[in-house]
Design brief:
- By secondary structure, the protein is α/β, with parallel strands linked by helices.
- 29% of the residues lie in helices and 12% in strands.
- It has 13 helices and ten strands.
- It is globular, with a radius of gyration of 21 Å.
- Adenosine-5'-triphosphate binds next to helix 1.
- Residues 11-12, 14, 18, 36, 38-44, 194, 378 line the site of adenosine-5'-triphosphate.
Length: 454
Amino acid sequence: MIRFEHVTRHYGDADAPALSDISIEFNRADFVFLIGASGSGKSSLLRMVLRESLPQQGKVSVAGQNLSLMLERRVPEYRRSIGMVFQDFRLLPDKTVYDNVAFAMRVIGASRSTIRKQVMKILSRVKLDHLAKRFPHEISGGEQQRAAIARAIVNSPAIILADEPTGNLDPRASEEVMKILRWINASGTTVIMATHDRPIVDRMSRRVVQLHQGKLVRDEPNGLYDPPEGSEAWEILSAEEAATGLRASDPMPQRTQLHSVVAPAAPAPGSAPSSDAETAAPTPQPTGPQAPEPHARAAEPVTAVNHYRVTWPQDDAASDSASDSQPGAGVDAADLPQFDAIPAAETEPAEHTPAPGPAASSEPTPATESAEPTTDPVDTVPAAPKTGSAPRLNWLSHAEDQSPPTAEPKAEQQSEVPRPRASAAEATYAESQRTAEQIRSSKGGLFRRSRRQR
Ligand SMILES: Nc1ncnc2c1ncn2[C@@H]1O[C@H](COP(=O)(O)OP(=O)(O)OP(=O)(O)O)[C@@H](O)[C@H]1O
């Protein structure tokens, strides 16, 4: 679904590239931890998926669409299929929790009743419904991050990019956040999370991608934060942590299975058992009833590779179905967010006036085609059409970039039922639903089908 092919990116006149010859793939329903020292390129990689930054060499494609060739007017629609979560939450301070989440739906023109229903449903899922009328400064950091995640997921994105979402949280709040991200992932959403949080990575036992000075040095399914001892990636991490004064190596929790990162055909992410049980204790515990069976980490050395590329099945549909078995593992189905998006039948003629939630707010007007996305000047890439010196993308002030949409197959089918006199906002919403679904299905190109459908 997301493919990096020999991607290199320099910023300005820096000698060292932020990303250097990165080749990697992420599939539907992957849960990926991006780790590496500060400055290793984690955020740069996320920004490329978001198409906030473009490669100077190589190619980044999502659902078959080369992001460098994506038309600028398609970018907002594309970005609405991605939910962003940041370390510093980035909630709108003058809006209530409800309005922060509702905002993401208003900008795509959802109807008032749909917004109310969906926002309260999502707030309830993240256990914030009782705080819907509070402002960000009236709730805790953990609650703010849950509100930020609610905003990111309210339109059911195909991809969640989380940049150190637990960086400002205590372990308990972090655990709550991770629980929500697991729920989202269990619904089929790809989650890529940059983090320095060793206990969380170790507890989750998901795919771990390690960067070092812009290079990919490890890609390990069901990995721990620490690479296998003795591997080149382990040497790198140890040296980095020694240099920064952080611990070089803590006692590692044991686990049952080791996947070599240099295997020519790594298993699809869904094919490996996950020890990420929702039943795990609320705080990280390397041992205990939930811990995997003691098993020494395999002694085989793992080679650090820059050109390494995971050999996932070429057919995304096949890998999708393979990975479908994993996401729900250990998750109580009753607790899963029901990302049924907004049934088309419920979609009312879009509001062009602000929709008051529990607390009134001033609202932006729905996104329009004229509100082009912006690209950081530093990221202007010659090959990209129409990139320029526009101001830096601001997720909070730029309505066009604010929200990711999505659709479950059911919603997509419904949206194909002809309905008379669909408003522009409805059409925008339906289009963005299709985009998310196309990213999920990942075959036939990102916008090909939507063009035919129009
Ligand atoms: N806009 C920019 N302009 C110039 N250099 C940049 C820019 N953004 C990132 N860099 C540089 O690119 C390299 C990779 O930065 P990046 O933010 O991707 O690292 P990171 O792994 O996310 O770090 P951290 O863990 O501290 O967030 C660093 O050397 C950084 O200084």
